[in-house]
Design a protein that fits this description.
Layout: H1 18-35, H2 39-42, H3 45-54, H4 59-63, H5 70-90
Helix pairs in contact: 1-3, 1-5
Length: about 90
Amino acid sequence: MKVRSERSAPSEKIECDEILFEKLRALRRKLAEERDVPAYVVFSDATLREMARACPRTTAEFARIPGVGERKLRDFGETFTGLIASYNSLS
């Protein structure tokens, strides 16, 4: 019998702003297509849900999201925080 810890819980259990999550997914899809890689290579759903929950405003806050390392911070930090800021200014 396999036991799941909270840490490995399915990403859909992370409560977040679902509208923002879908916008982040669309951005991820666009970036993945541009780079010709699968979407999960950009970010996992769990990472996107955490972004939609935490709504990082700065790249420093973005860096604290699980799944964001130095490379992804450099490559995507401003793009994703910009989308989040734009979404929050409209909400």
